[in-house]
Design brief:
The protein is of the alpha+beta class. The protein has five helices and nine strands; from the N terminus they run βββααβαβαββββα. The two termini are about 25 Å apart.
Length: about 150
Amino acid sequence: MLEVGGNVPDTTLIDDQGQEVRLAELQGRPYVLFFYPKDDTPGCTKEACSFRDTYSAFQEAGVEVIGVSPDSTKSHTKFRDKYQLPYRLLSDPEHELADAFGAWGEKSYMGKTYTGILRSTFVIGADGRVQKAYPNVKPDEHAQEILRDLGKE
């Protein structure tokens, strides 16, 4: 996992509106990058809606919110529209960004082992460095946890 103080890799991904997003260009403003396994599944929907419901508090704090999963931009657009998500969703089909952050790895479900997104979140400072890392997050409580840590709740 990318550690606190580590530099965010200069990666370019496509967002839910088909726009290129280069992480190096986000420098100068803090943001939250949350990795989730799959659009429109129960846990991921809870997490995405939790960030939606607290989005105004993140905006007031001057912190952008960005979700990342391996899903396609088309899937992201449907997910965003269905749940009225006010923030960008990045498509990482080759898990390039997830690998760089250590958010891709071995998982198990019902006795089966496979590789996939490890639900995790990172707070990135205006300087482009990781300020805080949250491995193994709980989808429905996580956005509030970050706001508490930022002193904004």
